[in-house]
Specification:
- About 55% of the residues lie in helices and about 5% in strands.
- By secondary structure, it is mainly alpha-helical.
- Strands 1-2-3 form a 3-stranded antiparallel beta sheet, with no helix packed on it.
- A hairpin with a 4-residue loop joins strand 1 and strand 2.
- Helix 1 runs antiparallel to helix 2 and helix 2 packs across helix 4.
- The longest helix is centred in the N-terminal third of the chain and has 18 residues.
- The radius of gyration is 22 Å and the shape is elongated.
- The chain starts with a helix and ends in a 5-residue tail after the last helix.
Length: about 190
């Protein structure tokens, strides 16, 4: 087996999602391409140089650099058992992110400008339930508990399941969408 496949298998056994596995593998591959050598040939100084390259030359955001850092730490410390490569390196401090919360008026403008009932239902549902786009796109009809106004969200972030409530307004838009489109499953 190749180092790449061994790393993929290691991440699978640790229970990482396919998206995380893909990101980790690609991040290690980028490091390897940057130095034009196997990641097994790199050391602590290479990692410092690479992380500085990401920050100073590529001008990546702190969050993106931290994702690279986690990938490299997972590769060297956990997979290759070479903790000295990542010794004394810590993730960068991330700025505090305050999300923009749309007002009811702004949401109403979005609903009013939606071109069809499907888009209106999506907007209303995501806003009232706090759903991520991927979560919304994977919803099936049987995930809705209409009596209790709950949605069973499977495969949420981190592969977890959760429940979310939705509003009567969202329910109205969902019913309108259902009457018009008559979806079979999703």
């Amino acid at each position: 087996m190749t180092v790449r496949q061994d790393f993929i298998n290691h991440l699978k056994l640790r229970g990482f999602s396919q998206c995380t596995i893909d990101n980790y593998v690609e991040n290690v591959a980028q490091l390897s391409r940057y130095f034009n050598t196997s990641p097994d040939n790199l050391n602590h100084e290479h990692i410092i140089k690479y992380l500085l390259h990401l920050r100073d030359e590529r001008k990546l955001q702190v969050r993106s650099i931290n994702l690279q850092f986690y990938s490299l730490r997972g590769f060297y410390k956990d997979f290759r058992k070479r903790p000295e490569v990542m010794e004394n390196l810590k993730r960068m401090k991330e700025p505090i992110f305050v999300p923009v919360i749309l007002s009811r008026e702004e949401i109403q403008l979005m609903l009013d400008s939606a071109t069809n009932s499907k888009i209106r239902a999506i907007i209303a549902l995501m806003y009232s339930s706090g759903l991520r786009l991927t979560e919304c796109s994977l919803l099936k009809i049987h995930d809705f508990d209409k009596g209790r106004m709950l949605i069973h969200i499977k495969n949420a972030k981190g592969g977890k399941e959760r429940y979310a409530v939705y509003s009567t307004t969202a329910q109205t838009y969902l019913r309108q969408y259902y009457r018009e489109y008559k979806p079979k499953d999703y």
